[in-house]
């Protein structure tokens, strides 16, 4: 059967989108590292979310906006997926949870998604997907192994650990809700509302417990521009588009590749060493994701224009 031009475009989107997503989201680790000494984390996140919300709103001026209950649901989803997730994970690291441990906890997110599908929603997750997720997670652990060496988890405070896990649960719930009736909303309007919701969370935290630190350095402003323009406008919008139109287990499995990609960027930008164990972990993560994907990243029947 002859392939139509639209099908060709859809296939190109399905092939290219994951590469852009991994590349964009992995820079979040670099941005967080750059901001650490220049601004209060929640204040920075608030400006990031408000900036992204404003641009999304401008792009959606002539679009139909969610109203009533749908508006509230988008607001709450943004609070969870962006606000609670980033605020809780950054707080956990700032209060004693090793960054390597937080990254490893983040690697559990695809497994959390699969568990919710299997235990709560009673949907079947194939053995091949479980195996791929497990292999991918082991690969992530190997990539992060230098950052985990010498860490005594037993001596870590319980609250930061719980906050780390809580942040991933919030992200998982926020992602899964995107597959509901919220998927009918225009992506630009949804982005504006959801980033506003995230800003409410981080803004409240910045007001209550923030230091107000903001040094106006070029590094800080560039990080804000990158985080709002590339991570939020580009990365988050692309991820939500893929979640709306793809298989959720396969899409979230791509997140396993974010820590390895960040390690490669740290090697290129900051000269951080890459061991053979880490390279083996990177290969193992790729293998795990490939097993889950089964070559097909998006279901063609549900691709959007």
Automatic annotation (TrEMBL):
Which keywords does the record carry? Cell membrane, Membrane, Transmembrane, Transmembrane helix
Q: How does the entry describe its membrane topology? A: Multi-pass membrane protein
Record-linked SUPFAM superfamilies? Multidrug resistance efflux transporter EmrE
Segments passing through the bilayer: 15-36, 42-64, 71-91, 97-120, 127-145, 157-177, 189-214, 220-241, 253-270, 276-292
Q: Does this entry carry the keyword Cell membrane?
A: yes
Question: InterPro entries from the xrefs?
Answer: AA-Vitamin_Transporters, EamA_dom, EmrE-like
EamA domain residues are 19-144, 160-292
Where does this protein reside within or beyond the cell? Cell membrane
Can you supply one Gene Ontology CC term for this chain's record? membrane
| Family under the similarity heading | Belongs to the EamA transporter family.
> What protein am I looking at?
DMT family transporter
* Originating species: Serratia marcescens
Lineage, uppermost ranks: Bacteria, Pseudomonadati, Pseudomonadota, Gammaproteobacteria, Enterobacterales
